[in-house]
Amino acid sequence: MLQFISFTEFDGMFTTLKHSAWRLETRRRYAFDEATDTYAQFLAEGRVDWDLADPWCVERREQAALGKRFERVRILDGPATPGQRYLLDNARRNEAAGETIRVLSRAQADELRLPQEDFWIFDARVVALLHFDQDDAMTGVELITNPVDVLCYLQAREAAWHHARPYQQA
Q1: CA neighbor of 14 nearest in space, from 50, 54, 52, 59
Q2: What is the per-residue pLDDT across 146-160, written as a single tens digit (0 to 9) for each?
Q3: Beta carbons within 10 angstroms of residue 33's beta carbon
Q4: Nearest CA among 124, 123, 111, 127 for reference residue 160
């Protein structure tokens, strides 16, 4: 049985986690990013002046200060799409907020047979599978808690993390 949660419940998972949150970002673009002022600035200037005092950054730093670990692997096409280049610039903000960001080429991800969908793993026991529509807008968050299914995502995490490199080397 599918279990979907609201975006508010999903957001709350980042403060209620006990140890770690890990994400695989597989998409070539995200509609949400393209609707932001920072995306427009990136397209115009090739970089963004990130506001490290915004609520997202403050919350991430507070959680990281409690010893919680936040990590991501972003899959990049060759050449990287504009949305992926934007996320590479955004990695500076993520890192300043306490996350560790690594990148992996799409060819490597395909070779490793990584999942094609975006997901977060919370505390190595819950997967939040992110659903998107054909226009790259996030439409829902599905929770996966069956240990056998979670293990498949944990194996993908280990493979991706092992083969990925720091985003600065992209």
Answers
A1: 59
A2: 999 999 999 999 999
A3: 17
A4: 111
Per-residue pLDDT reduced to its tens digit, 104-136: 999 999 999 999 999 999 999 999 999 999 999
Residues paired with 165 in a beta bridge: 103
Q: Which two tokens stand for residue 83?
A: 């949305």
Q: Are 21 and 69 in contact (CB under 8 A)?
A: yes
Helices marked H in the chain: 7-16, 31-34, 37-45, 55-65, 82-96, 106-111, 147-163
* Residue closest to 82 by CA, chosen among 116, 41, 118: 41
Residue type, 70: F
Q: Check residue 168 and report its DSSP letter.
A: G
Residues 6 or more apart whose Cβ sits within 8 Å of residue 43? 82
Torsions phi, psi for 149 (to 5 deg): -70, -40
Q: Measured between alpha carbons, how far is 8 from 21 in angstroms, rounded to an integer? A: 17
Place of tokens 């979907």: 4
Instruction: Give 167's DSSP letter.
Output: G
- By DSSP bridging, strand 138-144 and strand 3-5 are antiparallel
What is the pTM (predicted TM-score) of this model? 0.95
